[in-house]
Specification:
Blueprint: E1 10-13, E2 16-17, E3 24-25, E4 40-47, E5 51-57, E6 62-68, E7 70-76, E8 82-88, E9 93-97, E10 102-107, E11 112-119, E12 128-130
Antiparallel strand pairs: 1-9, 2-3, 4-11, 5-10, 5-12, 6-9, 6-11, 7-8, 7-10
Length: 143
């Protein structure tokens, strides 16, 4: 696969529909920019100040949405460039992330946040690579 730049990550604003009984948060429909095909949807809970990093998918395109809380995502491309995005209920976007981008994320909300990944393929642990947190030098506290 060709080298992929963090510039290939798309940040798409999403609609929130106010409702007196609880807001409705749009995530993705098949006519939206960023939709390729459907593999599965899964959710990851991240506790406040916890960090889940580093992972890179070889084939999966991720569509990341945070419908509950707030999460800081850090992306690293093959050119050594970092990109930071903070999304959540109050800054409601979908991040469409192509394969071959390293990423990690940190929970910013008490007691936890929920990350949804609408993936184009079914999760397969063998198509992803992982590195220990300390392997990629990034200052999660100051940045």
């Amino acid at each position: 696969m060709d080298q992929v730049s963090i510039e290939n990550i798309k940040k798409i604003p999403l609609q929130v529909f106010p409702n007196e009984n609880g807001n409705i948060y749009h995530a993705l429909k098949k006519t939206d920019q960023g939709y390729f095909e459907f593999g599965e949807v899964y959710f990851s809970r991240i506790n406040i100040n916890s960090i889940k990093a580093w992972k890179r998918h070889r084939e999966m395109t991720m569509n990341l949405v945070v419908p509950l809380g707030e999460v800081k995502f850090i992306f690293l491309d093959s050119f050594g460039n970092f990109r930071k995005e903070i999304i959540g209920e109050k800054n409601y976007f979908r991040l469409t992330v192509p394969p071959m981008i390293w990423f990690g994320f940190k929970g910013l909300s008490k007691p936890y946040s929920i990350v949804s990944n609408i993936a184009n393929i079914v999760h397969d642990p063998s198509e992803a690579e992982r590195l220990p947190l300390e392997k990629i030098k990034y200052d999660w506290i100051r940045n």
